[in-house]
Amino acid sequence: MKIKYWVGLSSLEKLESAFIQKIYEYFGDIEYAFWASKAELSKIEGLNIKKCEYFLETRSTLDLDKIFEDVEKRGIKIITYDDERYPKLLKEISNPPMVLYYKGDLFSCNLDKTLAVVGSRHSSFNAKEGLKKIINGLNNTDVCIVSGLATGIDTVAHRLALDNGLKTIGVIASGFDFVYPTSNKQLYEEIINGHGAIISEYYPTFEPLKFRFPQRNRIVSGLSYGTLVAEAALKSGALITANLTLEQGRELMCMPGLITNPNTEGIYKLLKTGATMVTEAEDILNALNWIILKNNVCQNEAEDLTIDEKKILYTIDIEPKGFDEIQRETKIKTDDLLVMLTGLELKGRVEQIVGDRYSIIR
Fold first, then answer.
1. According to a count of CB atoms within 10 Å of the terminal CB, is the N or C end of the chain lower?
2. Terminal-to-terminal C-alpha distance of the chain
């Protein structure tokens, strides 16, 4: 069971994800990497010598079975870097987390329509109201809101997602033994009980230390096709996430605010350098080239559809498309797509029309 080697490595606080990624990619097998000799490890270009010595001294002291069992006993689920379910967007960033610990149902979220929302911990009334207007415009769609479960804009974003029937993912800067801030405990419980997931790259016992918050930000933006900055001072975590968004090649969007508010200074700096201005939900959809189902499609019998079936409907929402076009856009395997299209026909959701094209039945 190779997963225990991933968990064992992530339980060592002095080993960051970059070290684990480097040894895994060099050897191509996590178990082999875990037991590699000093001579073998010395051949890896750029491997930190002190961290390597720490790893060699510490690994034999780990009870891998117990470490893994302790995670399972806490009701925490695990996805590792080599798992085929690992989020594809996150794998594209320069320093992806090697292990994702999560609670809730991550795969009930549409990971093909993820929007990060970040902003000030001391958010203004205007920012909250502006964000409310924008997220209300995404009401009852398949868009998933990603944020950091911090106070301020993060909390507002998660709460608005729940209020609008959207899934949401909270990325925390500690292990699951800690709920930080404690004021978000109820929100935390609501998210994991049917409204999305909370994820962390940290072993459950790791505390919410200051340096972990900027590290967390790369996952918030890395999971998302675009980032909406609702409010940001010139020196802020939100601005760090904005810069990470650009480094990761994702779409950066900003919500304008009062020019007299110091928490909008970062916003206008980003807008002046090319970020997309967002004043309504339609701006986000245009920037990301997203097509979403409107209420008549999304709500009507939506509860009996899988995520992949919804993807098919989104693909043919505007105009009928052939099998190859649907497969290209949804990335669903041929056999599975044939079964799903037949199932949707039986449910009365789609029909096959002239030229072997599929159309939604309105």
1. C
2. 48
- DSSP alpha helices (H): ranges in 28-124? 30-34, 38-41, 49-58, 64-73, 88-91
For residues 281 and 316, membership in a common domain is answered with no
Among residues 288, 312, 339, the one where a domain terminates is 288
pLDDT tens digit string along 121-156?
999 999 999 999 999 999 999 999 999 999 999 999
**What does the angle CA 259 – CA 262 – CA 265 come to, to the nearest 5 degrees?**
65
Task: With respect to residue 157, please indicate whether it lies within any of the assigned structural domains.
Answer: yes
Q: Do the domain assignments include residue 252?
A: yes
pLDDT tens, position by position, 286-332? 999 998 865 444 444 445 788 888 889 888 887 889 999 899 888 89
Q: In this structure, are 284 and 311 located in the same domain? A: no
Note whether 360 and 297 are within 8 A (CB). Answer: yes
Specify the 3-state DSSP secondary structure of 156: helix
Interatomic CA distance for residues 209 and 223, integer angstroms: 22
Mean predicted confidence (pLDDT) in 199-208: 98
* Same domain membership, residue 152 and residue 65: no
pTM of the predicted structure, to 2 decimals: 0.81
Q: Is residue 17 domain-resident? A: yes
Query: The dihedral of CA 146, 149, 152, 156: what is its sign?
Result: positive
Say yes or no: 173 and 28 in one domain. Answer: no
| Burial of residue 182 (number of CB atoms within 10 Å: 0-12, 13-18, 19+) | exposed
CB atoms inside a 10 Å sphere around CB 122? 14
